[in-house]
Amino acid sequence: MASCEKIIFPASIGGQARVAGFFYPTDEASPKGVVQICHGMAEYITRYDDVIRHFNLEGWHVAGLDMLGHGESYEANKAIGMPKGYFGKGKDAMAKTVADIMKMHDKAKERFGTNLPYILYGHSMGSMVARYIYSMPDYASEFKGFVFASTSAPNPAVGLGLFLSSLMCGLGQGEEEGKMLNSIAFGSYCKKIPDARTVFDWVCSDPNEVDKYISDPLCGFMFTNEGFRAMMVMMKFIQSKKAYAEAASAPAFMPYGREDPVGAYGTGVEEVASALKANGHSKIRTVDYGPQRHELMREAVREQYLKDLTDFFELVVG
Questions:
Q1: For residue 64, what are the contacts with CB-CB under 8 A and spacing of at least 6?
Q2: Separation CA 67–CA 171 (nearest Å)
Q3: Average pLDDT, stretch 121-147?
Q4: What share of the chain is helix, strand, coil (3-state, %, to 5)?
Q5: DSSP secondary structure of 180-200
Q6: Where is the Serine aminopeptidase S33 domain (predicted)?
Q7: Which of 203, 207, 228, 309 lies at a CB distance of 3.0 to 4.6 Å from 178, suitable for a disulfide?
């Protein structure tokens, strides 16, 4: 396991809510920079241990935050009754989660210094958060480069999802599991997998990794209705004309697998990249890893994928 330093600090939603952050310093005498990780939906930062170890060995410090309702941040808020898959109440909950991520960025600068280059690496839902930050000029300017790994395709049903999740929240069911929304969002994800063994086979082609995911109580849980509403607000923004137009000029790397339903089997990722390029953002690079599923860091291409990530980091910092 990579060497880890844990911190706890107040969450942006206020009250007694707290979030957990992590630092993973490299042992290299002359670090190349800092990679800040945004984790995916229904998982947490320490699941990235192999990825973090690779980054550390290549000379990169790593920082990351467990978002509210996830991992150690969920554990830190159990005493106040905060459920898993919950970012807070209201349509600004995701904006406050992004504020937490930027607070973590400030703490990383305190820990590792302001003279090093910073790169934001987001996977899955974390890639959507990274895309949100990419389209917020004041936030984006803090990073030299971005990774949007296994990101989402543009989804025309986001408006409906936002309406339904807001309806459920308005009925006082915000902190309850979003069963209807979960079915709509993920019900078809295994449709292209013959004889799918579990509902999470789309995550990874390695059954052992899928079993580990299923057996982990901090993975694969269902989001609350408020959690889904926060997601829909974010998705509506990142696929808007405004987001594409105001995206940063910094380089972005967009890796994907062609058996990943999140990115519409690759076509959706390429669509996002094309929209960014059409708005003048020329430093966008997509990489098609072939017939791989969602978690590239656990697929057969993992070694090449990790190498490609650090090669991109090197390119960004020159």
A1: 21, 22, 24, 36, 37, 38, 39, 45, 48, 104
A2: 25
A3: 98
A4: 45, 15, 40
A5: HHHHHHHTTTTTTSTT-SSTT
A6: 30-299
A7: 228
Indicate the pTM of the whole model. Answer: 0.97
Mean pLDDT rounded to a whole number for the chain? 98
Is residue 265 within 8 A of residue 259, CB to CB? The reply is yes
Residue-wise pLDDT for 216-270, tens only, equals 999 999 999 999 999 999 999 999 999 999 999 999 999 999 999 999 999 999 9
Domain ranges of the chain: 5-317
For residues 155 and 293, give the distance between their C-alpha atoms in angstroms, rounded to a whole number: 19
State phi, psi for 22 to the nearest 5 degrees. -140, 140
Q: Assign 1 a pLDDT band (cuts: 50, 70, 90).
A: low
- pLDDT one-digit tens code per residue, 258-284: 999 999 999 999 999 999 999 999 999
Distance between CA 88 and CA 11 in Å, rounded?
Answer: 10
Q: What values do phi and psi take at 61, rounded to 5?
A: -70, 155
CA distance 227 to 213: 20
